[in-house]
Design goal:
This protein is α/β, with parallel strands linked by helices. The protein is built from 26 helices and 20 strands. It has a 7-stranded mixed β-sheet, with helices on both faces. The chain has a 6-stranded antiparallel β-sheet with strand order 8-7-6-11-10-9, covered by helices on one side. The chain has a 3-stranded antiparallel β-sheet with strand order 3-5-4. A hairpin with a 3-residue loop joins β6 and β7. α4 packs across α7 and α19 packs across α23. It is globular and about 80 Å long. 38% of the residues are buried.
Length: 634
């Protein structure tokens, strides 16, 4: 039967063995077959999943959530479990049913669903896939491909190589980078002449490889930074560029960086990492690697390599040291070339218990009181990268359970949550936040999480949902809690609707945490702004004791000499009181709203920051870096 497998199907089984080995298993089971099948994004199975709007990232996350890592070792010829063998038998039967003489990835996908008893079948079924619907989608796909094949002249691999004037390895590389489109007919590649002409007419046609000596120098630098042995220097420039891209991401993860910046200048290609909220220059890469390295990151993020005049964005799924990461890539054209910004997030780090978020006991009680309300709108407020989504996930998990129907509409889905129905925004397909929220209201939800209220239509729908008996959680990009209320009015909500729907706002900032291993008391009494800041903190709800001791980090190996290690959140929790509602109805300015909120029990971001500085968790300088004095003032 194995001789009937297409090259892609064989590769999927090989990948399944790798997945089983990574998970410490001695046998290949159905979940490993599914993980192997979705490793490549251009086989028929993954195209079918895309047509059915099933995310490969969701499949992988769901499987990894159910499996337990073993301690086995990967062998060269790992055996299939009985269930996995059944999948192969079902795939063969599906191929015969579809009158195909080969077994491809699409037949393996059908076999995984048909087997029913394994983890793969359970995951696919939970994601809404059925055997009949998938089989019908495969049949439609094959019919479409046959129609295209019949209507267009197709060239073989050798003919395409001759037509392009290139080599087979180069053509395979272009296929892998999705720069040329190809059709897999059985186990053979076929190419439309029109696709080859379109590729040749594009400008530029290909990306120049970086010089070998420059790549070797950079790989040696990153190997030293990561304390790894230097790689074999005989590899091709293309392979070395791929390694360099991975080493940059691995260094960012090792340094616990949240963002990677690659910035072109006239002379070089700057690499900076944002660690604990502060950008740090890491390396000035030679200008010779700029074009090939940029193209590599865009290829990995499934962006258009040849489009250099418009901004683009994409995502790179990454696994490093047994943890899953998502790297969100954004490119923008600049005068010296494309600038790349990448946001790194570990999926396992997003779920944190609500009582582990550095909220004071009083603030934690207020937030939980808000979450226990049967309906209303609760907002998380703060700038980009302040931890709003992590806070909302923690809130959702705090009230999760079998008694409530919880749904989300997000862009992107950053973490798979148990007991929660999650929907991914797809703007190209017409699924916006507003459209998704409208659809979710038909799902009989109790709790709804909306990723962000970025426009008036979404804000109005969220308010309507809160009025009609739903608890709605969402985020706003504003400076502080009182400003969030005014922002809703800017989005078009009338004041009476804001006061009748919003039950609370939690504003937050992330500041650097002092290193526990080198922090020490510091005399900052001669700081000219200290008395002013202490007074503003007192007006904001925290009265620092006269004997308060402040701290600074001396710098040590554990914090890489910076004095800080990790980050801590600052909060202000606002609840709607009678006087505050009256002020909102007459559109009072933010200063008056802040004063009324403080009178009602709110502690400002500045006040919370100074309290944490007195507790030795951070420094006054760090608090003032992330919270403006005007924002903290009453």
């Amino acid at each position: 039967m194995w001789q009937r497998f297409t090259e892609r199907a064989r590769k999927a089984v090989f990948y399944a063995q790798e997945e089983a080995g990574r998970l410490g298993e001695d046998y290949v089971s159905t979940e490993h077959l599914l993980l192997g099948l979705i490793r490549e994004d251009d086989n028929v199975a993954t195209r079918i999943l895309a047509r059915l709007s099933i995310s490969r990232d969701l499949i992988r996350s769901e499987i990894l959530r159910h499996v337990t890592r073993g301690d086995g070792q990967m062998g060269q010829d790992m055996m299939l479990t009985p269930r996995a063998k059944q999948v192969i038998d079902f795939a063969y039967a599906e191929a015969k049913n579809l009158k195909n003489s080969y077994i491809g990835g699409e037949h393996l996908l059908l076999g995984l669903i048909a087997e029913k008893g394994g983890l793969a079948a359970r995951v696919l079924t939970e994601l809404g896939m059925t055997l009949d619907a998938t089989r019908e989608e495969v049949r439609k796909f094959q019919t479409e491909m046959e129609a295209k094949t019949a209507s267009e002249e197709l060239l073989s691999l050798d003919e395409a190589v001759k037509f392009l004037g290139t080599s087979k390895p180069t053509l395979y590389r272009l296929l892998g980078q999705d720069e040329i489109k190809g059709l897999k007919v059985g186990r053979q590649w076929r190419f439309r002449r029109a696709d080859l002409v379109a590729y040749m007419e594009r400008s530029p046609v290909a990306v120049a490889a970086a010089p070998k000596e420059d790549l070797d120098m950079e790989l040696a630098f990153f190997a030293q930074q990561l304390s790894e042995p230097e790689a074999d220097g005989t590899a091709s420039p293309e392979t070395k560029t791929i390694r360099l891209a991975h080493k940059i991401m691995q260094l960012a993860i090792s340094a616990k960086a949240s963002d990677i910046h690659l910035e072109p200048t006239r002379e070089d290609f700057g690499l900076r990492l944002r660690v604990d909220g502060v950008l740090q220059e890491t390396r000035r890469l030679p200008i010779s690697v700029r074009e090939s390295l940029t193209a590599q990151f865009k290829t990995m993020a499934e962006m258009d390599v040849n489009e250099k005049r418009l901004p683009q964005d994409g995502r790179i799924p990454l696994r490093y040291e047994d943890k899953d990461f998502t790297v969100r890539v954004a490119s923008v054209p600049s005068i010296y070339g494309e600038s790349i910004a990448m946001q790194v997030s570990a999926k396992q780090d997003l779920l944190v218990a609500l009582d582990s978020l550095a909220l004071t006991p009083n603030d934690l009680t207020q937030v939980r009181d808000l979450l226990r309300r049967p309906y209303g709108l609760i907002l998380a407020a703060g700038p980009t990268g302040s931890g709003k989504m992590s806070l909302l996930y923690s809130c959702l998990q705090d009230i999760a359970g079998g008694e409530k129907k919880e749904v989300t509409i997000e862009d992107p889905i950053e973490q798979i949550l148990p007991h929660v129905t999650q929907v991914q925004v797809n703007k190209k397909g017409g699924l916006t936040f507003a459209a998704g929220l409208r659809a979710l209201l038909q799902q009989d939800p109790d709790v709804i999480l909306v990723g962000t209220l970025s426009d008036g239509e979404t804000a109005a729908l969220a308010a309507e949902a809160a009025l009609t008996g739903h608890l709605v959680l969402s985020a706003l990009q504003v400076g502080d809690a009182p400003s969030a209320l005014l922002r809703l009015m800017d989005l078009g909500l009338p004041p009476h609707l804001v006061t009748s729907t919003v039950v609370g706002v939690v504003a937050m900032r992330l500041c650097r945490r002092l290193c526990d291993h080198c922090k020490a008391p510091a005399d900052i009494s001669d700081e000219p702004t200290l008395s002013h800041v202490i007074r503003l903190a007192r007006e904001g709800g925290y009265d620092a004791p006269p004997s308060a001791v402040f701290y600074r980090g001396r710098g040590c190996k554990r914090c890489r000499g910076g004095g800080y290690a990790g980050r801590i959140a600052l909060y202000e929790v606002l609840t709607i009181s009678g006087p505050l509602a009256e002020a909102l109805l007459r559109r009072a300015p933010v200063e008056e709203l802040t004063a009324l909120a403080i009178a009602g029990g709110m502690r400002t971001l500045l006040a919370d920051g100074i309290r944490k500085a007195v507790d030795g968790q951070t420094t006054v300088e760090e608090v003032l870096r992330v919270v403006s004095v005007s924002a903290g003032a009453g």
